[in-house]
Design goal:
heterodimer, A: 255 residues, alpha/beta, Rossmann fold, B: 424 residues, mainly alpha, ABC transporter involved in vitamin B12 uptake, BtuC, two-stranded antiparallel sheet
Chain lengths: 255, 424
């Protein structure tokens, strides 16, 4: 992981816009996430948080504006190209390879980063580095003893852990996590927060999260997205105190 | 405790034991089935095994449903035939053994050309494009007569090329060994391919193309490579078919042939490497044998396909593979009697259905010959009501009992699996 110059943010959005037909979902977002920051994006349902992640990760093409990854424009690139430049994401709805074993899921996610690309002349079982990396990731996400199990039959919490495993298995140093704790029990959430804290060491993290406990626990900085616009982007303490945020978002939560 | 993860290296027997057995079986088969019909049937099976395995690189491994795979089989065959004739005319010293490579190269080149067009999309769009390519090539074969020989096709003489080791490929048995060798090498290569990084990424793209892109892979590129390599092996199969039949006609790359390979692969089972092999052997056997017994053989073939799709969607190989868990738990003896119990009424129902089909066939297609016929060696008249009543009773009662017995069998299977889990 090469440290980018501190002046260049890991991720920088400027004037970003996205509409579907007449409906504008992202209405001019400006945001900079410095290298190494844990950044949370919060906002009411329908604010455009997932759309924002889809734009950054290449799932959607922006209508206007720029997305810079370490200073380089990535707006409109295909997802795999963005991934190869070091940005990896998880999904709100679990999105794994259901018929493949847990082991195979994670190993597949390590292959591009290790330089194996489309190799059809090497025996995959004999790639020592892919094996070591897979084992390391499975240990981190606590699924090593489930390595044989097809991902499709894992429990929900296990699938969510695998989802994070796939996201960190490559060599990406910028992670986007889309509601990593959604639908989890209190105990499961605590474990995932722990996991996120560990895997985001030495990485830049941007996450969408609804659980305010998790957000205030993990984030260095919080951006509040309301109707496709960032109305505030600040430290957790200041966000808590921000009147506009309270009115637009936290207030409705409390009510 | 053993380290988690699949073993990096397994013992010699575990890695190559199956292949040694396969090689031995391929060598021994002509000694066991030595009749002329058996040898030509096995030659055809060998060609079809390569063809079906190449198709499963698309369907089973990468999740691509192609309706035009015979294009590569047929073009491989035509180019092989032209190469053989050209070599013969030029008196060039090339032995017959290498000509399937011409087919393979042709399949690869056209795989690259057509793959560039079709693999941008998956799913229905891909299926429709391949259907279009199939029609395009099949219809141009009737227009470009000098290349495809029109209705008569292109003939070759496999004995008129360089002879190595005194093999002139006059006797069919020599062709058998040539096909067996190519079949072995191709199957081993295609199996090895499933165990490479690319092979695993094909599976990932099949399972979830969206996520495959977010772990760094271009799904278009993966599909394109898989499509091209499938074309390569289909071309080898087509080249061997040209050598085997000594004629290539445009029907070999038509929709019928493309459909046959879908059926073979599906009936055998797409989720298992051995599936297409089982399917190719079974379907070829049925095509050869059943067409001898009954004129309505294609109807039975269709029924078999529907039956597999409805009751064993993972094919025959999948059905067998599911018994592995029961077998490992040592409970196969608990479920086998139930399978036998279901099989008996199933066969009765099939016989009833078959009787009705054969009588219909006798009255319609064979109408001029009159209603007198034989069914399972029994003489009967298709015009009298008794056999019709019998057929109906057999079918209805057999089906009813079969369904009930199948329920028991499925319960027994479920219990055996649950028990084995409980003990584990």
């Amino acid at each position: 992981m090469t440290a980018a110059p501190h002046t260049v943010p890991a991720l920088e959005l400027a004037g970003l816009r996205k509409s579907f037909g007449q409906l504008e979902i992202i209405r001019g977002v400006d945001l900079a996430v410095p290298t190494g920051e844990r950044h949370a994006v919060i906002g009411p349902n329908g604010a455009g948080k997932s759309t924002l992640f889809h734009l950054i990760s290449g799932h959607y093409r922006p209508n206007a504006g720029s997305i810079r990854l370490r200073g380089e424009e990535i707006g409109g690139l295909a997802p795999e190209r963005i991934n190869r430049r070091g940005l990896s994401r998880s999904f709100q709805v679990t999105n794994v390879f259901p018929q493949l074993s847990v082991w195979e899921n994670v190993r597949c996610a390590t292959l591009w980063g290790l330089g194996y690309r489309y190799s059809f002349w090497r025996n995959v079982e004999r790639l020592a580095d892919a094996r070591a990396r897979t084992e390391e990731i499975l240990t981190q996400i606590n699924l090593l003893d489930r390595w044989r199990t097809p991902a499709g039959v894992l429990t929900y919490a296990e699938q969510r852990a695998l989802e994070i495993g796939l996201t960190i298995a490559g060599d990406a140093d910028i992670l986007l996590l889309d509601e990593p704790t959604a639908g989890m029990s209190h105990a499961e959430t605590e474990r995932v927060v722990d996991l996120i804290r560990r895997v985001s060491e030495n990485r830049t993290l941007m996450m969408i999260e609804h659980d305010m406990g998790v957000v205030f626990d993990l984030a260095d900085r919080i951006s509040v997205l309301v109707y496709g616009e960032v109305i505030a982007s600040d430290s957790p303490a200041r966000i808590k105190a921000n009147a506009a945020v309270q009115q637009a978002y936290l207030g409705t939560e409390a009510a | 405790m053993q380290r988690p993860g699949p073993p990096a290296r397994s013992g010699f027997l575990a890695s190559y034991g199956v292949w040694i057995v396969v090689a031995a079986v391929l060598l021994a088969l002509p000694q066991v089935f030595s009749s002329g019909l058996a040898i030509s049937t096995m030659c055809l099976m060998g060609v079809m095994i390569i063809f079906a395995l190449s198709y499963n690189m698309l369907l089973g491994q990468t999740g691509l449903l192609s309706f035009g795979h015979a294009v590569f089989f047929g073009l491989g065959g035509f180019l092989t035939a032209h190469a053989m004739n050209a070599v013969r005319a030029a008196h060039a010293p090339l032995p017959l053994e290498v000509f399937p490579l011409v087919g393979g190269a042709t399949g690869l080149i056209f795989g690259i050309i057509f793959g560039a067009v079709s693999t941008r999309r998956a799913g229905t769009t891909f299926a429709m494009i391949t259907l279009g390519i199939g029609e395009l090539v099949a219809s141009s074969s009737l227009i470009l007569r000098s290349i495809f020989g029109g209705e008569e096709g292109i003939s070759v003489d496999r004995t008129r090329v360089l002879h190595l080791f005194g093999l002139n490929f006059g006797p069919q048995i020599q062709v058998y060994y040539l096909i067996a060798a190519w079949c072995f090498v191709s199957a081993a290569a295609m199996y090895a391919l499933t165990r490479t990084p690319f092979g695993r990424i094909c599976n990932a793209v099949r399972d979830n193309p969206q996520r495959a892109a977010f772990i760094g892979y271009s799904t278009t590129r993966v599909r394109f490579i898989a499509f091209s390599l499938a074309g390569l092996f289909a071309g080898i199969a087509g080249g061997l078919a040209a050598v085997n039949f000594e004629i290539v006609t445009s029907s070999q790359m038509g929709a019928g042939q493309s459909g046959t390979v879908v059926l073979m692969t599906f009936i055998g089972g797409v989720g298992n490497f051995a599936g297409p092999i089982v399917g190719a052997i079974l379907v070829t056997y049925l095509q050869v044998m059943l067409s001898d017994i009954t004129g309505a053989w294609q109807l039975y073939f269709g029924l078999l396909f529907i039956g597999v799709v409805m009751f064993a969607p993972d094919g025959i190989a999948g059905l067998v593979a599911r018994q592995q868990a029961v077998w490992q738990a040592g409970r196969l003896h608990r479920v086998l009697p139930y399978y036998a119990l279901a099989l008996a009424p199933g066969l009765v129902a099939l016989a009833g259905l078959s009787l009705a089909i054969e009588m219909t066939y006798q009255l319609t297609v064979n109408g001029p010959e009159g209603p007198a016929m034989r069914f399972l060696y029994m003489p009967l008249s298709a015009a009298s009501p008794l056999p019709w009543i019998l057929a109906t009773v057999m079918f209805v009662a057999g089906t009813w009992l079969f369904v009930r017995a199948m329920r028991l069998a499925i319960n027994a299977y479920g219990e055996a699996i649950a028990n084995s889990r409980g003990r584990a």
